[in-house]
Design goal:
Strand content: under 5%
Shape: globular
Number of strands: 0
Largest sheet: none
Order of helices and strands: HHHHH
Oligomer: single chain
Number of helices: 5
Radius of gyration: 17 Å
Number of domains: 2
Distance between the termini: 46 Å
Structural class: mainly alpha
């Protein structure tokens, strides 16, 4: 992979992480009967994304390009990930955590690898359900689990 692509993508993912951190501030800090607030998870993910993106930028800037002919940067895929992440943040409350996260992860996996779509769907659904139940039942937090229009 090109170090130039790594640097550009790390900047984009840092901006997405900053967006997550900033938007988590608009979510209430605690909910009635909850020990942790619903803002903790997106805040933690945003901080983790920022840290990993900064590490990628640091490693990419230290590494000299080993290839003379670098492959073309797939701008369409990168822009698709940015749009997908933005849509995920916008529709999460309306669709609920489980459905929106499953759909987000499935689309992200599909963008990376179009083969084995059923495995991607199973992993996306399993992961979102597992995280939801660990956060809600284990940590006693609250997340918008299922959309109101589904009931």
């Amino acid at each position: 992979m090109s170090t130039r692509f790594d640097r550009y993508s790390s900047v984009v993912f840092t901006m997405i992480g900053v967006f997550f951190v900033a938007e988590s501030g608009s979510i209430s800090a605690s909910a009635y009967g909850s020990k942790v607030g619903p803002n903790l998870f997106p805040l933690g993910l945003g901080i983790l994304l920022i840290l990993l993106s900064l590490r990628l930028f640091w490693e990419a800037s230290r590494k000299k390009s080993e290839q003379k002919a670098t492959p073309a940067v797939d701008h369409r895929r990168l822009i698709s990930f940015v749009v997908l992440t933005f849509l995920y943040a916008v529709v999460m409350e309306w669709m609920g955590y489980v459905l929106s996260t499953s759909l987000f992860l499935f689309c992200a996996f599909w963008l990376m690898n179009k083969e084995n779509w059923w495995k991607s769907a199973m992993i996306a659904c399993s992961f979102s359900l597992l995280v939801y139940y660990i956060y809600v039942d284990g940590l006693k937090g609250t997340l918008p689990g299922w959309p109101a229009w589904l009931n």
